[in-house]
Amino acid sequence: xxxxxxxxxxxxxxxxxxxxxxxxxxxxxxxxxxxxxxxxxxxxxxxxxxxxxxxxxxxxxxxxxxxxxxxxxxxxxxxxxxxxxxxxxxxxxxxxxxxxxxxxxxxxxxxxxxxxxxxxxxxxxxxxxxxxxxxxxxxxxxxxxxxxxxxxxxxxxxxxxxxxxxxxxxxxxxxxxxxxxxxxxxxxxxxxxxxxxxxxxxxxxxxxxxxxxxxxxxxxxxxxxxxxxxxxxxxxxxxxxxxxxxxxxxxxxxxxxxxxxxxxxxxxxxxxxxxxxxxxxxxxxxxxxxxxxxxxxxxxxxxxxxxxxxxxxxxxxxxxxxxxxxxxxxxxxxxxxxxxxxxxxxxxxxxxxxxxxxxxxxxxxxxxxxxxxxxxxxxxxxxxxxxxxxxxxxxxxxxxxxxxxxxxxxxxxxxxxxxxxxxxxxxxxxxxxxxxxxxxxxxxxxxxxxxxxxxxxx
Length: 458
Ligand code: GDP
Ligand code: IMO
Ligand code: MG
Hints:
Blueprint (H helix, E strand, L loop, with lengths): L1 E7 L7 H8 L5 E4 L8 E5 L2 E5 L12 E4 L4 E2 L1 H13 L7 E4 L3 E2 L2 H14 L11 H9 L6 H4 L2 H23 L9 H7 L2 H15 L3 E2 L1 H10 L3 E9 L19 H8 L8 E7 L2 E3 L12 H9 L12 E3 L1 E2 H11 L3 E5 L9 E9 L6 E2 L6 H6 L1 E8 L16 H14 L3 E5 L7 E3 L22
Helix pairs in contact: 2-8, 3-4, 6-8
The site of magnesium ion has 5 residues, from loops.
């Protein structure tokens, strides 16, 4: 039995989806534990290239169950569209389940997300505009609507009526009772229309009803039958609600603390945490990014790494590997190993820089960790160590020994700075382009559990 959490160690988009797709071959259950359809996980496998937003990345293995955990916020029509897309590609997703305790993202959450961003002006967070923040706000304020209510039409309609009454007051607060009078007017009318939203969501609820289960029972049965479980993270530590670059964060917890809560299992049952880090750094959205390259070098990383947001298509901000940020993540997440992705993107470079500390240009202080004050973090400058590049194509390398010596030295230096073994190195997006380091076990490895687990439906 093993429970492994796969967690982003940077700003998100580290390649968690491809790592989960790779590991899920041997997993009985994959659970997404946080976020919503702000996630964009691109998975490339023998079936094609897929962009997942809500559906866990174990979905391509028919005998692996996939659960959207209670910690996820679900936009039901968006999930139905994702299911339809996968059905079109030949995946009926009969192996997908949805926790009855997950919360629902409503159209007015998306609207409020947009209105709040507009109000922030230059201080905007750069959210994905998927309504994620406002949906979690309603959850914490104890007025959210859960999946168990969505699948009961009478209850849902009553709850929606109350939610829309409140949403109208909020929207009027932005524009006055006279309405928006701008390009959002149509979106507002549509998001606040009880009949329209109710019809759309109840139709989606009908589609999703057969997938809705008591998520905790599913996970608990898997634990007691010694199943192999993967907990799939969304985003990374630097966007964690508590530990990230507040307020430029998301509204849930990508770190393993969030995994126990959002999947529905005791924290002590997580055996291992696999951190996923890119061989350089990228971020989508606003906030400090100390190693960001705003010149041609950054553009080159973006083009070579195809660094465009999976969910929003926005160009990702690119920079050198930030060992301080990853070390910060190591301390919070307790990784047993790290999967270092996209090493191949560095293939053509003469010199590769690694940030080993930050320097404050005002006080002259050196920082070995991430400061709480984002205003301080914004002005910190990276202290770099330069390492030689290898200028060789690594995409065909399939073993540690096949990697050029300078590439191995780079990985070893990053490993030394993280103080955690780098167990996996990827040199391309395909399943076959994953190199398992000597001595690292292909997790999880024991025999699969029986599949006759009964789960209760909502
Ligand atoms: P996630 O959100 O953490 O799952 O990451 P994304 O899927 O949003 O972004 C990672 C991108 O890098 C995807 O397009 C992957 O197909 C791609 N990718 C993953 N690993 C590698 C790798 O080793 N090399 C290259 N070139 N691309 C990779
Ligand atoms: P994956 O799962 C990269 C960023 C947004 C913004 C902040 C808050 O693919 O790593 P939100 O919409 O969550 O309120 O936005 O987080 N963000 C992501 N950045 N990858 C993602 O998902 C992201 N999900 C949100 O750009 O800065
Ligand atoms: Mg992503």
